[in-house]
Known about the structure:
Blueprint: E1 2-7, H1 11-22, E2 27-33, H2 36-39, E3 48-52, E4 54-55, E5 58-59, H3 60-70, E6 75-79, H4 85-94, E7 98-100, H5 106-117, H6 125-150, H7 154-164, H8 169-176, H9 180-194, H10 199-209, H11 211-215, H12 234-238
Parallel strand pairs: 1-2, 1-3, 3-6, 6-7
Antiparallel strand pairs: 4-5
Amino acid sequence: MTRVLLVDAEGLRREGVAELVRQLPGIEAVVEADSVAAALPLLDGVQVALVRALLPDGTGSGLVQRLSRVNPKAKALVLAGVGDRHAVAQAFAAGAVGVLAPTSGRAALAQALATVLAGGAITPPHEVVAWLRLAAREREADRAARERLADLTRRERQVLRALVQGWRDQEIAEHLGITHQTVRTHMVNLLGKLGVTTRLQGAVFALRYGADVLDEGTGALPIPANGRVTVPRLADLRRLDPPARSQRQAQPVGR
């Protein structure tokens, strides 16, 4: 008899899949969770896990890793849509054995579970290799991006952090005690180091790769008078870009 763990934040979808799984032969129990945190206490005794690639508090890959530690013989299948490529690649790198569409019907679920429990694979080997290669490329891209962020000076990190928070040049200048032109020079230099051409791209780069790096040694930034410290929407960030510059070469920094 098989104990199955189903992890999906969407309640109606999760309940529908759970009901399908309960009707399959040989299923002893189906336990459900809506997040990584909720699933962690349920891993013991699980033989097969159906895990959504993206969850509110993390990705399925972290849960797949934890499951393999608790029960090395357990099998994990990833439930993923067409837009979940990054999370799916991570899950395969963590040890997932296959991927299924969240909308898979009863026959597809039954076949997948039977195949996995029998030691078979539902994802062709060449596709698994492709996912693993994608995961490796993404790890390398992440490493390179974090190295670029680490190469920023303390002041450049402060300026980038303020940019992500939605501050204008004048606000940054006033609160860091530097001139408006020096802010612009720092901005040109840090964008060049990150390999991007606009402030929007710089902010997105920082949000994707550098939350912890930006906090290292930047010192506390005071809150501007308007109290705006939340991460802005992309539409707001676009307004931060001044007119196109004639060049992006690094400039000497004054005060």
